[in-house]
Amino acid sequence: MSKLNIYAAALVLALLLLIISLGLVFTGNIADSGPLLIAFFCLLAFGFKGYESLNGFVFTAIIFAGVVLALYYPQYFVSIGDVKLTILITPLIQLIMFGMGTSMSVKDFGAVIKSPKGVFVGVSAQLGIMPIMGFILAKFSGFPPEIAAGIVLIGCSPSGVASNVMAYLAKANLALSITITSIATLIAPFVTPLLMKVFAGEFIEIDVLTMMWSIVKMILLPIGAGLLVNHLLKEKMDSFRKILPFISMFGIWAIILVITAAGRDNLLEMGALLMVLVLIHNLFGYFLGYWYAKLLKLNDQDARTIALEVGMQNGGLASGIANSLGKIATMGLAPAVFGPLMNISGSILASYWHKRPTDDAGNTISETEKR
Asked: Which domain, by its residues, includes 60?
């Protein structure tokens, strides 16, 4: 059997497992459907790997397998003995940020000088549009205050590595994407707590200084350490950089697994509505980010980049902030839901733009020009 046939067989088997598991759910045997759903997402991830057009959804399928695993068997991911597994969240985020630091250098910020308008538009859109949208959705959600504050928290967080990956797949301006992510991440320790005070202050009490120090520990210190290591051991870091994407993906997967298990009851109670609101938040980020950039006269390539930067927030960091406040099972729910959904929507949008390339001036090539 050829490789392609193996991947196709995996997708067919995944579909069969989905049909059986849905049958169990509709007949009231929900508990028995768990293993089948987990196997469905694992086979789906394997099957997607065989097709270039579906390859961007592999990690998303793996995340959903972890979410289902945590929903059906939360007892294995809440604690080991007397030790709560939520203590892993901050070190995992620090590891991801350290990895980000090792892939950066001072030269990377030269794009701020070369293209200040694009960077300014991107950062201002990210830290302007999403907090306001988060506040509006939280205000009218009817959720308990701490869960509502989690929606605002997503909006007040910077973008993450996922937006850079999607910018690459979309043939957007990758250098601009990385620079916006880096700048927004570095100013997050100071800006995010202030935005939370303004937009989430009516939902929960925000200690700005405590939150600042928590984010400094999660972002600035590990990124600074990564920059230093990269400077001192630049030539010896090549092997480490090759495994960085896998370390980051595992870290994000583990964080979502732990959060889902910790907030399982709340998630089951209001998960559907939370998913809808989070998806609205995400899609509006793409839409408003793109048109904000176009309004300020940026070309299509840069507008695509900013749309992805605005719509795709760093759910892992938001989860870490919620955990540092001791509210992982409530405030941490929106970030946990946001992560998988933004990967799906981001992959679809990146695939759409990938098929509609831009010219040297960064403007979309029409169908007529292609011919």
From this structure: 1-81
Query: Does residue 222 share a domain with residue 317?
Result: yes
CA 94 to chain centre: 16
Residue finishing a domain among 30, 53, 81: 81
- What six digits make up the tokens of 11? 């997708």
| pTM (predicted TM-score) | 0.81
Query: Taking a C-beta distance cutoff of 8 angstroms, is the pair 336, 259 a contact?
Result: yes
81, 114, 141 - which closes a domain: 81
Give how far Cα 9 sits from Cα of 13, 131, 213, Å.
Answer: 6, 44, 50
Q: Hey, which residues does 83 pair with through a beta bridge? A: 80
Same domain, 6 and 121: no
How far apart CA 93 and CA 238 sit, in angstroms, is: 21
Number of domains into which the chain is organized: 2
Sign of the alpha-carbon dihedral angle for 199, 205, 208, 214: negative
CA distances from 190 to 261, 342, 370 (A): 30, 25, 46
Q: What is the pLDDT of residues 200-249, one digit of tens each?
A: 988 888 888 888 888 888 888 888 888 888 777 776 767 777 777 788 78
Whether 94 and 73 map to the same domain: the answer is: no
